[in-house]
Amino acid sequence: MTAPELLVDERRIAFQVGNRPVPMARFSLAELLRAVEAYDEAVRVPGLPDELAHLNVDPDKVRAFVEALPRLDASSLDLLSGRRLLLSSRGLQLDGWTAVTSARIRAGFRIEAEADAPAPGIAAVRMALVPDTELALRRIEQARSFVAERDAQLAQLPSHAATAQANDAIVLVRAARLSAVYAWSLLAGELSERRPPVAGAAGLREAANEAARGAGVAPSWFTRRLDSTRPGGASGPLPPG
Q1: Dihedral class, residue 12 (left if φ above 0, else alpha if ψ from -120 to 50, else beta)
Q2: What pTM was estimated for this model as a whole?
């Protein structure tokens, strides 16, 4: 076993991704990454880049996180000991859309306590890394372009297709658009909530809200998939529709 794997065993740290605990008699990073990849495959929306998919967890960020654990200070490790970590929680910033890179994680971080746990039985902790502002802005621009392209695509499609296959295609386009809007909203929200807020972030957040209002009701296929991956089966907040 590697040093990170030994530490996870010694500290009795458990992991969960979405609503799926990852049971292991002895911790294996390779096995954890396989679980992450299986989860990502279950929530992946065709045609949507992983960096705009608000449900996908980045396996390389997870690897960087686990491999950095032996370098944490004692107070950070104490917050993790005997606890279950939800890899898909916003506080850990391991999702594909977050503006925290694997390289930043590998360079080191601290773990801090949060007031509320993301779900019952889950550690109320966050990774104390400030997201990269320029990366966040680039990703927001990528999301805006993606949404504009999907809007143009939807404008050429009927609201109700004549065949089930054509209707499935419309649903997938709408689902990809909605996920990109959500990633855009989360990124802009983080920038606007900083003290002081990043210049222009409030406008970017309002633009995301406007794009969400234009989405209408979330496709039932997408919301069912969302519900199936959240701890406890709850989808959590979606952008206003």
Answers
A1: left
A2: 0.86
